[in-house]
Amino acid sequence: MKALVFLSLFVAGCIAFADAVPGKPAPAFETSAADGKTHKLSDYAGKWIVMEWYNKDCPYVKKHYGSNNMQDLQKKYTGKGVVWLSVNSSAEGKEGYTDAKEAMKVAKDTKSNATAVLLDPTGVVGKAYGSKTTPHMFVIDPKGTVVYAGAIDDNNSSDPKVIAKSKNYVAAALDAGMENKKIEITSTKPYGCGTKYAN
Amino acid sequence: MKFVVILSLFFAFSFPVLAAESIKAPHVEISWVAPEKWGIHSAERIGLQFKIDPQWHIYWKNSGDSGAPPKFNFSSDKSVVSQPQWPIPKRIPVGHLVNIGYENSVLFLFQVSPIAGSKVLNLKLSLEWLVCKEECIPGIAEMTLTRPLVTGPSVWIKTNQDKIEAFAKRIPLEETSSWDLTLIEKTEEKLVVDLKAKRDGLTGSEAPDMFPVDGENVNPQAPKVETMDGRFRYTFALPAGRGNPSQFKFLITHGDLAWERELSLQGGAKAVIDDDESVGRVSLVSLLFFAFIGGIILNLMPCVLPVLSIKFLSILKTSIADRRKDALLYLAGVLTTFFALGSVFLVLRSAGASIGWGYQLQSPFIILFLILLFWLMSLNFLGVFEFGESITNWAGNANSASSFTTGILAVFVAAPCTGPFMGTALGAAATLPVAPALGIFLSLGFGLGFPFVLVSFVPKLYKLMPKPGAWMERLKQFLAFPLLGTVIWLTWVLGIQLGSDGWLLSSTLLLLVALALWLGKTPNRVVKGLAVVLMLVAVTAGFISIPKVKMLQVNASTDKVPLSTSYGWVPYDRSAIDQARAQGRSVFVDFTAAWCITCQLNKKAVLEKESVLKMFQDNNVLIMRADWTNQDPVITKALAEYNRNSVPVYLFYDKGAHAQILPQILTIKMIENLFNKKE
Questions:
Q1: What are the φ/ψ torsions at residue B113 (nearest 5 degrees)?
Q2: CA-CA distance, B543 to A86, in Å (whole number)?
Q3: What is the mean pLDDT of residues B410-426?
Q4: Out of A67, A133, A186, whose CB is closest to B241?
Q5: Residue B15 — pLDDT band, cuts 50, 70, 90?
Q6: Cβ of A59 and B239 within 8 Å?
Q7: C-alpha span between A9 and A3 (Å, rounded)
Q8: Same topology for domains B12-168 and B566-676, yes or no?
Q9: DSSP label at A153?
Q10: Hey, which residues does A25 pair with through a beta bridge?
């Protein structure tokens, strides 16, 4: 019995360490998306990937969508062959939850340029990556290694006016990484609303 | 157009406000707490008050996992405004996250002084804040504060002044004479620091709380706190991959008082094995060496020797190549098991569980399992039963799988016999970082496996061994007896854990198992089947009834054998120690467990000898027994204070002076010396 407890604690310990950490392989996932298809990490092997944790009702997400900052980033980098995945980990009944149909509508209304909007109401993908906030950004290189994890930029204000003066970490990571240069900042503290997992 | 969209979107989620002295916004009310009239030469401390709806919160300067601190942007050419002063925050769990902030009501304080020549004090503040429950609502406001400047002192409303004072107490103190903050260890995952009060009367035994000021480099979760002799040890979790900051800054809080301390990482990091009184500073190399020697000594322990002897007899017959292969497999089994036990131990340690070495033996399930195992082995050694894939095979005969399992078995049976050299090493393993700690476990394993491997690999040594022959059967039978002895001892341990019913339970189980084995010797298939059923039922029933027996024992705890109270020994009680020492009495503490052989030997040979007890009595020593037979966090914590987590530990508090730890093998002479020294 005690041995069982030890074992489960041990396993729990291992899971807790499974966050997406710069320098480590990105956690694999398989989940449905707003487009009705199933998306896997392995579908995009060999490509640069951005994972963007998304919650349509979070003021900090609105900061970047309302100002078109996020859409512009999506457009610029998907244009360079980057796969951009917005992930919604809001559980049903929580702020920002959408079903596939509504997610499609929101994506259309906000003119999102993301490759896909992944739906993760169980929080499995979010927890595998250790997503704490929306937005929480992860950049994955073509080898499947996490090269950046953290905030979208260096200003945690909710005021969209500050965006112009902010340093965008995701753009910096992609620009450097895609030119085979060293990525200077690989990990920052994410800011925003807490990811709305089920209780 | 785009601008209008942004603007309307923005205002949709932020409350539109005009410049004002007070503001009502969703879930917060914000207002100034300031003097009514401002003395023209007065520097005043004013407050910006947030009244927050129940269950909502705003943030400290490090907001924790999510959220954001309020931002204050003053613009005023007629006055000088200080940086915000942040009162003591609290940790607020939100779902799976930890925020650091404030609930109900808080005042952020500012030191403000008017510039000479002004007639009116006019403050303008661009304020931005975030108020959250689970969802968050940001706000932006322009706030103003206008006060006439008057000659003479400022005029305050009393209640406002009280409010300022209440929160002023809760901002960090300027002085640096209270605490020493030292770095103990920093790894990728954690930061360990020690906090020591520089003067008396700062705290009682209660540990201050600590908050990381810098959220980038330290996780906001409450640190693990250990109370040590005169200091507190904090273990913070660090976020992955954030590089190497050159310094950390912490807020230290105790009650209403707070301090901020910086911790520089230059040249401070070291692995610490700090045991001022007894062991002194022991290098990792010597710890590994002790562990290795301890492992070798384990081979001679009564619980291990029979298993190994049988194994050894079996390989005497095999070719040299097989022998070497077996020896290595055996070593692999030992190391794997130590590695596994060590890993579980470290995982539990990192999960904050209070456990120590020997923890496996604190479970009656494992004790009953060992009893059964030793019983079956001894019956097998005696020839009561033999079948193809018998226990002997499992424990002894030469085949690859069994050599590996012998290794596993050896570690399991060795655990209760933790030898004198292992206490220091295992204690250190409990405080060391992961890699060196596992190193110690593996060294122990190497020690345990070493003699066996040595004999198998060095032909000269091997030639000294007697030739195989009929004597081997006799020896095997003889070795059943130490095993039976172990059964008696473990039954006794179970009896202490479960009360006398535990003894009845195990004995009945052993009887039924023996009966089943005897029944199974018949050629009759029906009876054989019956024997198997009997065996299964007996074993299952035995294990299932443990929790029930345990419950009974809890209900009737007065029936428990008063292990601790015999011969004037009293149970462990920290406050009694402090009290006795305050009265100028010496205190002797025996950290022991029924499953610890060394402890039992010391008890019988020294601690319960009449002459020793008389010495204790003559010197008015309070003798205390900390019984660790069952899991007991209080005792585990007490052991940890002395960097130990295995028993035995013998602790002697001299009158007034510090504690002294005695060696793990006691002699009467040592006890005499405790008292002779003083004269």
A1: -135, 135
A2: 52
A3: 60
A4: A186
A5: very low
A6: no
A7: 10
A8: no
A9: B
A10: A145
